[in-house]
Amino acid sequence: MTAARPFYLPSGDEVEVFTAAWRARLPVLVTGPTGCGKTRFVEHMAARLGRPLVTVAGHEDLTAADLIGRFHLRGGETVWQDGPLVSAMRSGALCYLDEIVEARSDTTVVIHPAADHRRTVVIDRLGETLTAPPEFGLVMSYNPGYQSVLKDLKPSTRQRFVTLALDYPEPELETTIVATETSLDTEVAASLVHLGVLVRRLEAADLAEVASTRALISAGKLIRQGMTWSRAVEVAVVATLSDDRELAEALRELARAARPAATDSAER
Questions:
Q1: Residue 9: in which H helix or E strand, if any?
Q2: pLDDT by residue (tens digit) across 153-181?
Q3: Average pLDDT over residues 235-258
Q4: Are 213 and 227 in contact (CB under 8 A)?
Q5: Predicted TM-score of the model (pTM)
Q6: Burial environment of residue 149 by CB neighbours within 10 A (0 to 12, 13 to 18, 19 or more)
Q7: Which residues contact 7 (CB under 8 A, 6 or more apart)?
Q8: According to the model, what pLDDT value does residue 60 have?
Q9: Nearest-angstrom CA–CA distance, 38 and 44
């Protein structure tokens, strides 16, 4: 039985651009704010193209060896274990490097030849140069607004990729997404999206992140489980965005303004 394709509603031509890039054997860089749907989009595209997906979460301890592979001791024998990039390349999968800018700088030595016309990875310890099959695709995600100046993509890396800039969907589309993901009625979903829009407009230097589509969906799922609208928003949105009392109260004011009228009497 074929697995269901992950739900994703395009906000532009990102599906067509990604498909064209994959067919042209070009790597793709997906940029956008936290929780706007970058990972879901990549999952959707892997299923759409009929390719396995190998995901690597970027972190500060991730090294080139983690991507390529290393020898391990098993049962008294030394055995080679492919890393995720090499494994994806051998199987013709999509390799998704999520927030790879967080990784150590030596990872670019591996990424560059895999991302340009060579489409290769050098496995020094095996004395092997692996060339990707046509089906292989390399995808990276990146949140420009979250990264510091010291952790940014070098032009030499970025220019190897086709870049797709995603953002939070327009309210009507986001309402459809929240309603679909949570099975809530349109009015309640729209109220959550309205809150998201209000928070994203909030001018506050201390607010490092805004209400993402992912956070709104989390609140909706809690509501679906019987939690009140206000409490769901408190734990899924307000409390996750700030510990500052004044800022949290400002967020609660926005939540009260966005709360649907149908819930007023039930929550008083």
A1: none
A2: 788 888 999 999 999 999 999 999 999 99
A3: 94
A4: no
A5: 0.91
A6: exposed
A7: 40, 44, 177, 180, 181
A8: 85
A9: 10
In single-letter form, the type of residue at position 174 comes to E
d(CA 10, CA 76): 51
Structure tokens at 10: 């395009």
In this structure, the strands spanning 69-74 and 77-82 are antiparallel
Instruction: Classify residue 148 by burial, with Cβ atoms within 10 Å: 0-12, 13-18, 19+.
Output: exposed
Residue type, 239: A
Structure tokens at 114: 């895999």
Q: Is the pLDDT of residue 151 over 70?
A: no
Let me know: does 31 contact 142? Beta carbons within 8 Å. Answer: yes
Nearest-5° angle of CA 237, CA 238, CA 243?
A: 130
Q: Beta strands 120-123 and 128-131: pairing type?
A: antiparallel
Instruction: Yes or no: say if 184 and 224 are a contact pair by the CB < 8 Å rule.
Output: yes
For residue 224, what is the enclosing H or E element? helix 213-224
For residue 206 the two structure tokens come to 């201390």
Of 6, 24, 28, the C-alpha closest to 142 is 28
Q: Read off the pLDDT of residues 4-20 as tens digits, 9 standing for 90 and up.
A: 789 999 999 999 999 99
- C-alpha 204/C-alpha 253 separation (Å) is 14
Could you list the beta-strand ranges (E) of 40-98: 53-57, 69-74, 77-82, 94-98
